[in-house]
Amino acid sequence: MKHTKLELSVGIFVLLGMAAIAYLTIKLGAGSMVGGKTYLIETRFANAGGIHPGCSVLLSGVTVGRVEGVRMDPSDYSAIVTLKLTGELRLPADSMASVKTSGLIGDKFVSLSPGADEAFLKAGERITLTESAVDLESLIGKMAFGSVDKGKENQEKVSKTKP
Amino acid sequence: MKCRLLFPALLFALLTGIAHASNETAENRLKASVGDVVTIVKGATNRDALITAVKPTLENILNFGIMTRRSIGPGWKQLTTDQQKEATRLFTTLILRTYTAKFTPGEYPSVEYKPSSSPAPGRVEIPTTSLYKGSRYDVVYRMEESGGWQITDVVIEGVSLVANYRTQFDAEFKQGGSEAVLKALHHAVMETK
Known about the structure:
The complex is a heterodimer of chains A (163) and B (193).
Chain A: H1 2-30, E1 38-45, E2 56-59, E3 62-73, E4 78-86, E5 96-101, E6 108-113, E7 126-127, E8 130-131, H2 136-145, H3 148-161
Parallel strand pairs in A: 1-7, 2-6, 5-8
Antiparallel strand pairs in A: 1-4, 2-3, 3-4, 5-6
Chain B: H1 2-43, H2 47-61, H3 64-72, H4 81-101, E1 110-113, E2 117-120, E3 123-132, E4 135-145, E5 149-156, E6 159-160, H5 161-191
């Protein structure tokens, strides 16, 4: 009888522990740890660079929100990223959003940079002044291998000088 | 029932038409200004003459007021009116000198325009590809309508001019206030001489 009780309490303890781990995994993964009052704003990027729901939104290095959703605008194939921001944050209308990477191969995050406009962004409004993820591979490629057009231009110059 | 559907359809068609017309106006204005700059660069003999000749065209197409305010960022509101005027003057000089420094008199870029988009009413983004001295650059011109269509930001290879300056000026402002921002601007202008 004593053994059964002990086994039961250990079982309940293990179950509670697993439930806590599952809860934290879901909550942290989905990025709903931004507590209190929140509001949503949209940002438009030419290239979201792999941003996904749950990614951090930072302002001056401080987490002020999370990415709520990512979708594509079929009219111009741009990426619309919805951000969930803390309620106390008031962003000027000319604020900018950039997709950044922590370190060279680190996590992607959205960095906000407040502007100087007198008007503030309201819930549901969109930040259009954005910087997409910089394509490091293509930049390194351009530096390492040069531009394809260089050869073409040189050829044109040579052919122009020839009679 | 038909009338109910007709009104939204007409409104949508009208708004789409207006957006398309705005894009076209902005595109034409940009193309005309780029054409003017190319003509000036073709005829310029030295850099000083190039700066003098290109200045009126750039002042006409670039909105330096908005660009300066956005580049300085949150610190702009702390500047006095005189300081704001001085900052705009210095920023204008900085952009003109930096821009013209990229050009070699006689050599000019070929610009290819891609379809523009309108991210919000009164705003148009025109992506282009410029071929200059054998290198190809992706340049996006962000234009806004404030009396007429003017450029308010230029994004080169994914890096925004305004965002780039804002990061630097905001750091200066946080360290030393408005005086530090003006000092940094003075310093940057002197360096481009």
